[in-house]
Amino acid sequence: MSTDTDSNTDIESTDVSNTRTSTAASDDVLLETRGLTKEFGGLVATDDVNIRVERGEQVSLIGPNGAGKSTLINLITRRLEPTDGDIQFKNSSIVGLDPHEVVQRGVSKSFQTASIFPDLSVRENAEIAGLAAENGAFDFKLLTHRDSLTDVHQRARDTLEAVGLLDSADETAADLPYGDKRRLEIGIALAAEPDLLLMDEPTAGMSPEETNATVELIEEVKQALDLTFVLVEHDMEIVFNISDRIIVLNRGRVIAEGAPEDIRGNPDVQEAYLGGADL
Ligand SMILES: Nc1ncnc2c1ncn2[C@@H]1O[C@H](COP(=O)(O)OP(=O)(O)OP(=O)(O)O)[C@@H](O)[C@H]1O
Fold first, then answer.
1. What number does the ligand 1 atom closest to the CA of 234 have?
2. C-alpha 90: how far from its chain's center?
3. pLDDT per residue as tens digits for the range 233-268
4. What is the ipTM of this complex?
5. Which CATH superfamily does the domain covering 1-106+196-279 fall into?
């Protein structure tokens, strides 16, 4: 399982953002990491990682336990400060930004720990997520501003419709079945109207039925909202089914990337990922 780095706001003081150089970038490239390195003490969790994600792509990050997948995601969401390297989103560096500023630029992460307020209704959760995305830190006073309420309600409605939870809008979030809670988490991430949705093990802990429903939901949302996805997933069946492209990490380094059919037969990947067993 992932090391829970979400709770570790390892934002260090070194600001390396001014030392970065810019190279020509294509408008199709939404996200690009350049020489991205994260060290924890002597351990290099991501080691000179250079990846590109184009608009509209569904990319999966795979690799054995400890390969650096969650670290990479947490660097992109600014929960972790890189030791070296840059992260470009829409052709500008996001290193140096606070996590909420990255959300405002268009990067959302679903399956964040404790993204749901359990005692509030499903609708209120969606409303708060929308407000928080707009305003950075959520302020309960915002809910009392009448002018913005219509917008907030409409956006929450659209969000719940997108994830199939409109009928459960008045239920208390804590009472939702497990699979619907995961839907609400996706909804909360979508309320920020992201261009890029990052998902770290969206089907972890799910039954086969819930897993299927979540995969369907991801496909639906992708079609409906024309989103770009980066997914960390251990279930290879899901990865090979839904990815346009797969990036393979091992010991912090990218060891392969390509279409599912190329990755499936790649001997380096088989060796690293499953100790030589066929994928
Ligand atoms: N906050 C941290 N402090 C120290 N070491 C960490 C921290 N977070 C991750 N690591 C280490 O960095 C390496 C990469 O971890 P990471 O969680 O990114 O791997 P992963 O590919 O997501 O693994 P898994 O598939 O098991 O979730 C591991 O050796 C891990 O122990």
1. 25
2. 16
3. 888 889 999 999 999 999 999 999 999 999 988 888
4. 0.97
5. P-loop containing nucleotide triphosphate hydrolases (3.40.50.300)
